[in-house]
Inverse folding.
């Protein structure tokens, strides 16, 4: 590990947030779903190397994309095998999920395999309260802790009604939980999930900057490519793959999600912006409404009241139209068109 002080930067001074990132246990939550834990794991290496963070713990979110978990909604605790179930789910290298006749390893299991130890995760079936209780458990375990809610792509900065927004619910739940403990939001690889375009994410970051919500910017260094290798080809995440592609020099426009979206991979893909959760909350209208929800259903109801379509709506429509399980192969552009038409009829 090499700390930032080992470089002769001359003007470098330690600020309060740098102190906290160095001295506290930093919990890096993969905000937007199962695959974000891969980047949370790698960003822990960035914090250790560049800031000198002493203890960094990746925290997974157990809501996998359909390609891994072809059933609607986050993974229920009752479906998780070979894991210790407390407020957090303590995932190890043998942990798997059974849904119907289908079994799979969540992304956080692969991170546990690489680290050789248990990795905490939260299932969003208990809404913001469940994510909050998981963090409090980690705080009791590690002492002084700082929660960093890391979203790959940046749709955590969505108001909720943007044209290209596909999955605002998981981001909003984790953001609301993070704001309850005055944590930080990290936006990694702007635009990498093919939802908000990179230009709009950068504009929203500027909006947070104008609200005095900017903390700092870090990024992936060339040697962090090694932390992706051995892991990235074993998992199905596409958003978390984009920093790895950039580190390999594979820049340009890439199709993801079966061609339903495109992302731009460039130098900006290697950046991680750190923002105050309070100011990000001022942008995200859904997160403002769900701060004390105790179930996914309550959060979903609030989204419907606001007229915000979510990934849960998409998955429910897909299950009704195409069925569930590994044989189900939804046309996501068609599913999204159905959802938009339903939304127009009810708005």
């Amino acid at each position: 590990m090499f700390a930032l002080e080992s470089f002769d930067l001359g003007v470098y001074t330690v600020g309060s947030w740098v102190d906290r990132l160095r001295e506290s246990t930093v919990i890096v939550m993969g905000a937007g779903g199962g695959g974000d834990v891969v980047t949370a794991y790698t960003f822990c290496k960035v914090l250790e190397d560049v800031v000198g963070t002493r203890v960094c713990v990746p925290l997974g979110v157990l809501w996998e994309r359909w390609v891994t978990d072809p059933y609607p909604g986050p993974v229920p605790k009752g479906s998780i095998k070979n894991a210790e179930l407390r407020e957090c789910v303590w995932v190890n290298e043998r942990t798997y999920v059974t849904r119907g006749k289908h079994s799979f390893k969540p992304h956080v299991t692969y991170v546990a395999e690489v680290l050789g130890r248990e990795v905490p995760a939260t299932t969003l079936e208990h809404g913001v309260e469940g994510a909050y209780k998981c963090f409090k458990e980690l705080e009791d375990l590690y002492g002084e802790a700082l929660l960093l809610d890391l979203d790959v792509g940046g749709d955590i900065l969505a108001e909720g009604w943007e044209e290209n927004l596909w999955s605002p619910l998981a981001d909003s739940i984790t953001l609301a939980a993070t704001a309850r403990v005055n944590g930080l939001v990290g936006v990694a690889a702007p635009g990498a999930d093919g939802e908000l375009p990179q230009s709009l994410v950068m504009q929203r970051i500027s909006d947070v900057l104008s609200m005095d919500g900017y903390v700092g910017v870090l990024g992936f260094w060339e040697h962090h490519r090694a932390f992706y290798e051995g892991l990235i080809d074993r998992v199905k995440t596409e958003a978390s793959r984009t920093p790895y592609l950039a580190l390999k020099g594979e820049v340009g426009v890439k199709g993801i999600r079966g061609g339903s979206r495109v992302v731009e991979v460039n130098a900006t893909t290697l950046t991680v912006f750190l923002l105050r959760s309070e100011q990000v909350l001022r942008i995200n209208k859904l997160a403002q409404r769900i701060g004390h929800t105790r179930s996914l259903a309550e959060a979903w109801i609030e989204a419907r009241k606001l007229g915000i379509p979510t990934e849960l709506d998409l998955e429910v429509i897909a299950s009704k139209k195409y069925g569930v399980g590994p044989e189900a192969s939804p046309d996501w552009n068609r599913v999204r068109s159905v959802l938009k038409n339903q939304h127009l009829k009810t708005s």
In short: Residues 36-51 form the longest helix (16 residues). The mean pLDDT is 91.
